[in-house]
Amino acid sequence: MLLFDFLRAQDPTLSPKLAKVHLACWNGEEDPLDVYYRGGFDEWQTFQNQANFERPFVVSLISLAEAGRWLFVGVYASKGKRTLPTGKYQYELEALPAYAEFGGRLLVSFVRPRTSYLLGDNCSARMTVHSVAAEPMKLDSFPGFKNVDISFEDLGFLVRSATTSWRTALSSVAGVYLISDTLTGKLYVGSATGEGGIWGRWAQYVDGHGNNLELKRLVGTEGIARAGHFRFSVLEIADTHTGEPEVLARESHWKKVLLSRVHGLNAN
Asked: Number of C-alpha atoms within 13 angstroms, CB side, residue 42?
């Protein structure tokens, strides 16, 4: 089923010719999916570098890890904009209640072109409904070890709230993990063994560095805000009873493969 056919079934006044489609993607600083999980997406998208929302409606989708898959957030009425001192814009966007129940639940299939702001009538024939989940996507839903990719801010939220599904999953495994510095592209490879597993180790990073030499130097020099550029993912997992030498050997393998000693943030 075409996305706009589905949306028009909720409100016939929504025509592709009246809509802009916002394909929210990583902007070099923030992942819109992280912003959505924290409840700040509606305000986040009101700020635009250019006059992007010059049609009566905005249909907002967020890029997911799987190529060609998008999360529907909502449909918004665009009620004007103001020019900021920087020359950029802030729009007044009102979420339309007719679509609220599908926000975070509706998944869309669409191959993205180069631009992130599309005219509805230029793309509506290629946007299809993939599925509708029973519950909205939430940060507290552990996505599986292969799909873990979270920001430092989200890690802090998970640790402080002791989110059950994440704590249960990550504390049940040892393994090798990756910290990516999105500001420089440098990588840090670490490992976790024993009781508490990866969760126990990651919980130590709420201070921004987890007592790692290079990360501690960065955060010590530039402040805790520097850690805001870090992202956490899992390279491989092992049973928590796996011997430390075996896990350290796998950690060393990943350091070699990813060149994190030579060009990254591993000091040894």
From this structure: 14
Question: Which of 45, 9, 49, 13 shows the shortest CA–CA distance to 30?
Answer: 45
Q: How many structural domains compose the chain?
A: 2
- Whether 69 is covered by a domain: the verdict is yes
pLDDT at res. 31: 83
Label the pairing between strands 57-63 and 19-24. Answer: parallel
Distance CA 120, CA 19 (A): 5
Instruction: Give me the amino acid identity at 80.
Output: G
What does the DSSP 8-state code read for residue 224?
Answer: G
- Residue 167 is assigned to a structural domain of this protein: yes
9 and 96 in a common domain: yes
Residue 53 near residue 46, CB atoms below 8 Å: no
Coil/strand/helix, residue 118: strand
List C-alpha distances in Å: 169 to 122, 199, 225, 237: 43, 8, 28, 11
Q: Are residues 60 and 105 in the same domain?
A: yes
> Which ranges of 82-163 would DSSP assign to H, the alpha helix?
120-123, 152-161
Give tens-digit pLDDT for 26-65: 877 788 988 898 789 999 999 999 999 999 999 999 998 6
The closest alpha carbon to 172, from 241, 92, 267, belongs to 241
Could you tell me if residue 238 is inside a domain?
yes
